[in-house]
Amino acid sequence: MAGYDDRDGVIWMDGELTDWRDAKVHILSHAMHYASSVFEGERAYNGKIFKSREHSERLIASALALDMPMEWSVDDIEAAKAEALKASGLEDAYVRAVVWRGSGEDMGVASARNPVHMAVAVWPWGAYYGDAKMQGAKLDIAEWKRPSPETIPVHAKAAGLYMICTISKHKAEAKGCSDALFMDYRGYVAEATGANVFFVKDGEVHTPKPDCFLNGITRQTVIQMLKDRQIPVHERHILPEEMSGFEQCWLTGTAAEVTPVGEIGPYKFEVGALTRDIAEAYEQLVRA
Fold it and tell me: Name one GO molecular function term (predicted).
C-alpha cells in the first residue's frame, strides 16, 4: 500500500473533510516538539464503531490530563467520527481520532495560547499481529519499564507515552518477535507496547492491575466477558517469574482485538481452549 501520507480519501480536520493528501500541520506545531498530543484507536465493524462513545469520553479525559481543553463535546466527536467513517466508504475499518496543540504564539514548553486541533482518519487495517492471531504471538521482554504515575499522566492515551513502545517494538521485530512486554517501574508485569496482557492458570485468569498504565477498553470488555462466564479474574501485581507457571496467555486491544500469545522471552504458552473461546466470543460481540 501507499504511505499513509499518499492515499485517496478524506480526513476530518477541525470540522471539515479535507483531501487526504492535504491533511497537514505546520512544522512548528507544539505537538511535534513537545508531544502535546492524545489519540484514540478504534475499530468499526459492519459500519459501527465498537464502544465508540467510551473512546470519545477517554479522548476528552486524555486531553484534559495534558491540559488541552477541547471545544468538542462527546457528541461532537461522535458526529465527526460518523462523518469520517461514512466518507471513507468502509464498513470494517480502523478509526484514529487525534487531538494536538498546534502552532501559535507559544514555541517553548508552555503552549496555552496555541490552538487545540482535532482530526479523524479512517482506513482499512487487518489483523494487527498477522498470523499470530491464530498461531500465537512471540513477544520479547522490553528493557524499558512503564513509569510511575507520579512522573507522567499514565492513564492518558498520550502520544509521548508511546516513545518507549516504538523503541521496544523495533528491537522485538529485529529479533523475529511480534511485540514486547513491559515490566513496570516496580518490576511487575505491565503490558505490551499497545495491548494489555492476560494469563490463565488452573481455569482462572490473571491480569496486571492497571495502576501505572492504560486500562484498555478492550481489556475491560474482556474482563466482563470472563465474569459473565463465571470465570474468576484476578487483577493483581504479577511477578515476571510467575509467567513460568501460567498455561495460556493473550493480548487485548482495539488493534490487537484478542490475540493469543505463544512465547514471552523464555516462557511458553499453549493456545488453549479458553483463549480461543474468548477470541471467538469477542469477534461475535463486536459484530453483534
Answer: branched-chain-amino-acid transaminase activity
- Beta-sheet pairing, 10-13 with 116-123: antiparallel
CB 179 within 8 A of CB 139: yes
Query: Which cell numbers hold the place of 153?
Result: 499522566
Q: Quick one: pLDDT at residue 263?
A: 97
Q: Which three cell numbers stand for residue 265?
A: 522471552
Contacts of 204 (CB under 8 A, 6+ apart): 231, 232, 233, 234
Work out the number of other CB atoms within 10 angstroms of the CB of residue 65: 16
Q: Quick one: cell of 180?
A: 514486547
Whether 138 and 249 have beta carbons less than 8 Å apart is answered as no
Which pLDDT band, with edges at 50, 70 and 90, does 1 fall under?
A: low
- The alpha helices in the chain, defined as continuous H runs, are 30-34, 52-65, 74-88, 132-135, 163-174, 217-228, 273-286
Pairing of strands 37-45, 93-101: antiparallel
Catalytic residue status for 157: yes
How far lies 24's CA from each of 7, 8, 27, 88, 181, in Å? Answer: 13, 15, 9, 18, 33
Per residue in 140-161, pLDDT tens? 999 999 999 999 999 999 999 9
Kindly state whether residues 147 and 251 are assigned to the same domain: yes
Instruction: Name the residue range of residue 14's domain.
Output: 10-123
Which entry of 81, 138, 157, 169 is annotated as an active-site residue?
A: 157
Check whether 129 has a pLDDT greater than 90: no
Q: What is the pLDDT of residues 92-116, one digit of tens each?
A: 999 999 999 999 999 999 999 999 9
Residue 194 resides in a domain: yes
User: Is 99 inside a domain boundary?
Assistant: yes
User: Is residue 124 pLDDT above 90, yes or no?
Assistant: yes
Judge residue 83's burial from the number of C-beta atoms within 10 Å of its C-beta, 0-12 exposed, 13-18 middle, 19 or more buried: middle
